[in-house]
Amino acid sequence: MLKVVIADDEARVCSLIQMLIDWDELDMTLCGTAGNGIEALELVKTQHPDILITDIRMPGCHGLELIERAKQVSPHLEIVIISGYAHFEYAQSAIRHGVGDYLLKPINKQELMSTLRKLAQRCRTRASLGSEVERLRRSSREDQQQLHARLVQDLLSGVEGSLTPARLREEYRLDTQPGLWRFALLGMDFDPGQMSGASVTMIEEKAEKLFRTELGNACWAVLSHFSGGQGGLLLGFAPEREKEVRRSLRLALSQLEAQRAMFGGVEFSMGLSRPQTQPDALPGAAQEAHMLLMERLTEGTGRLLETLPPPSALSQGRLLADYRQAVGAHLSQMTPEGLAAANDLLEREAMAAPHARGAELFALVREAGRAFLERPEVSDREAQQAAFDGLIAHTGSATKLFMALRAMTQAQLAAMLEQQRAGETRPIRQARAYVQQHYSEPITLESVCEAVGFSPSYFSALFKRETGENFVRYLTRVRIDRAKELLQQTNLSVSEVCSRVGYNDLKHFTQTFKKETSLSPAQYRRLYG
User: C or N: which end of the chain has fewer Cβ atoms within 10 Å?
Assistant: First the structure.
């Protein structure tokens, strides 16, 4: 039997909570009540409860202090906080401290019981409670839920082969019914630096529960998978319930938006695919929902998005080529003002394109960021790229997308300048300048050393120490970067590009280009030209 402590400075609230809980159904017992934080902490120390239900503001020991100190005494203690609308900022802080859930006053019995059931399940799972029969029963149910969640995940990442009713039944344990299917994708926008993983998980759990509750009566199937700040919902329903389904989605989304302050300013949006009648259309529906969710970048957050704009006139390839060229010029001169002008021009031209879609703007900013981070001057590229991708994935407007690009590129440029001031020596700068001017010629280490006045052995060691890569590797990167620009911006044949960047052997050039970019020169031109 699980033990519970209730803490509130109002005795009537303690009594109300005690009366609302069906103790026998939950297999719980009340082991004490407290009128202030000090008493509550003492009960945690002496009674070792499994669950603490506490007001967020109490005399003697502030609610946040109580939570922190109680967790120190009992790390596995599950905590439910009680909050009024006036105390949102305190509840938000408590979420960061790892509380299990929160309840808004006035307390609702159904919500209280549902919360306690969830926390009881966590406690019992952790303690390995329950009979073998219950474990097997739970395992079977959880296996089915995991398969259903995997279906949603597979639809978003791409399912190979056709989805037939038989395949759904055999592979995902989903029995279909005649009717309609729709795929909905919920997006959460926030600053990853200000939101812990535990907080995101808690918000995902509440959102998933909310949508399942609202859609339960309208749909015969509600399959869900929430992870990484977004949630997919596969909905099966009778045709006559279509309006009810849309109404339920809007209602759930509105409820999430109403609690934004509690969640720390998270913004919610949802893309909803068109109705489909056959399972084999579901992968396309999932991708449509993803494209629709991206429209929040131009339409605004807090919306249920159902209509894609007409085809766009955005010339992504040209804008990226111009941006690469501008960034290359300004980085070689290390000018923050020039880099800012390049970023401003990219945003201005992208936003001026008629009917620019959110997905296109996102892809443009992502590729522009990658183009910048591919520069030889950037260190720790993979980590920087992952951080940038994570940031823009939860950005809810096109303006903020370009702001993120500006911030990242300026921060990187500042780091480059600092690195240059701290460590780059004059001979290395001369060697780089020599390579930039003569990369199309048959450069050798000896010829560069002659130009800068150093012996090959000393220069080679110095170059590696100051730049982090050997000279041959640097020369290769410069030549391949120039080859990329020529493939994007000119109609020169691959063999002409080969010779212009200093290679005499077309086969060797092709192999080197593919090793650096994972694409052949012809494939690169088709993709980015």
Answer: N
More confident residue, 529 or 482: 482
Task: Rounding to the nearest 10 degrees, give the CA dihedral for residues 236, 239, 244, 246.
Answer: 70
Residue 50 to residue 129: CA distance in whole angstroms: 13
Q: Which residue has the tokens 């010779």?
A: 499
Per the omega criterion (within 30 degrees of 0), is the bond before 106 cis?
yes
> What one-character DSSP code corresponds to residue 280?
G
Strands, sheet with 28-34, edge to edge from the N-terminal-most edge strand: 28-34, 2-7, 51-55, 78-83, 101-104
Question: From CA 390, how far away is CA 135, in angstroms rounded?
Answer: 38
Neighbours of 125 (CB within 10 A): 12
What confidence score (pLDDT) does residue 98 get? 63
| Pairwise CA distance, residues 120 & 87, whole Å | 26
Nearest to 306 by CA among 293, 322, 320, 324: 293
pLDDT value of residue 345: 93
> Confidence band (pLDDT; 50, 70, 90) for 141?
low
User: Quick one: what percent of the chain has pLDDT higher than 70?
Assistant: 92
Two tokens at 55?
């007001």
SS (HEC) of 195-225: CCHHHHHHHHHHHHHHHHHHHCCCCCEEEEE
* Best CA proximity match to 346, nearest among 403, 410, 415: 403
Q: What is the dihedral of CA 46, 49, 55, 58, to 10 degrees?
A: 10
Task: State residue 364 phi and psi, 5-degree precision.
Answer: -65, -50
The 3-state DSSP class for residue 318 equals: helix
Beta strand ranges found along 175-322 (DSSP E): 180-189, 221-227, 230-237, 267-272, 304-305
| Alpha carbon 216 to chain centroid, angstroms | 27
Instruction: Give the closest residue to 330 by CA, choosing from 367, 375, 389, 298.
Output: 375
Q: Is the pLDDT of residue 33 over 70?
A: yes
CA–CA gap between residue 409 and residue 159 (Å, rounded)? 36
CA atoms within 13 A on the CB side of 167: 11
Question: CB–CB of 510/521 below 8 Å?
Answer: yes
Spatial distance between the Cα atoms of 346 and 262, rounded to a whole number of angstroms: 36
